[in-house]
Structures
1.
Amino acid sequence: MSELVKIRQARRGDQQALAVLLKELGYDNAADSNTQLWVLNHPEIDVFVAVDHLDRPIGFISLSHRPQLRLRGRIATIDELVVAEAWRNKGVGTKLIGAAVDRAKALSAKRVDLLTYPDRASGQRSFFKRSGFEEVDSALMRLVELEKR
């Protein structure tokens, strides 16, 4: 089934599909059009979409990348990854991860990070492990004051 799926850069016409996919992740209000345009046009963010044979988005991955002093180079972070429920377990997520990793390598990134939450499905964590990611010793700290605005 994944041979019918192609990966390409996201474009403005994908905005509604990206919003629908983010809702599948539980983020109902995350994808306003201004923020989407900002992300899609940002020089340090790449968004790749998986599309079906009719070029309809069925999944996407966003990769932000920036220089970091302590690594003496570029770090990349997978910010979002979602595949439409009907397309899960068919190799789409693997293709999206591959596109993001290829881009990080092309940018000579020193590291690719992603954040996953303990309350997400355990299958998600095992998917990331099968994709070559390892859990590392870290703690996420957040200034919650900004989230309240």
2.
Amino acid sequence: MQKQRDIQHLEQQIKEQSGVLNRLQVELHKVVVGQQNMINMLLIGLLSNGHVLLEGVPGLAKTLTIKSLANAIDAPFSRIQFTPDLLPADILGTMIYNQQKNEFVVRKGPLFSNFILADEINRAPAKVQSALLEAMQEKQVTIGGESYPLNDPFLVLATQNPLEQEGTYPLPEAQADRFMLKVTVGYPTKEEEMQIVKLQVSQAAQHALKPVCTIQDIVAARALVKSVYLDEKIEKYIVELVFATRFPEQHGLNWLRPMIGYGASPRASIHLAMAAKAYAYMQKRAFVIPEDVKAIAFEVLRHRIGLTYEAEAENITTEKIITEILKTTKVP
């Protein structure tokens, strides 16, 4: 009975605070037409303190959406254009010699912001990608043998183009696993593209986004997201989904065994739980239901399942594997 009262009280708090998300969505849609799933996933990453990777062909408003999100929140923002000649010091910072003080001083790099737009992340060489590992996971960077904490919140929002292979460095599994969500961005509908054209050729395209919330609003929302109730049955359901990617034969999916090179890591279970809580919060609910887990399963798992050559030869995608796992795993 007490638990039910607590959930009702939390739900009331969520409804009272939902204005922050509504304001963000309204502001984003002033410059971004459609792409509701991409916007929702960026907000889930923001609410659950998880990094987001957007993948799609050029011209789908990936960079624009991330930039607009940062502009709509009153917080420091850095954009890093990844190129093959980029060095770790270009993003982390370095030691420079100060002649007046006759000593080396630290010059911090663009990672010392709240929001980092890592544009075309797969164009950066391995050294730069690995330099991001500590920053993304530990929320700190090491310069000249000393560690420096990064801003809180710290969110890496990265984009990559799947078409071009020349001059690119595919993200290694360890790096990709640091991203909570991988969102594939699709083409707009005919109606949406008509709106895009009208927006770009009119004066409305010059609209400058204004900050509609602060870092304190985001921190307060995150505290409520953490409080969202996750039943033990839902936790078990999440673990079953992740284990099905590792041992499909134990879940009645024998035909998938030769298709999967490696399954999702334990980080996938953590991120499924966190993202499901954030999704429930966005639905103004104080508890997680199985549909919340299903709604974010593709984004959390698609970059954590390794395909074999056999799967690629038979055109089996990670989306197909996740669909089969969701179909066969018993829903609580």
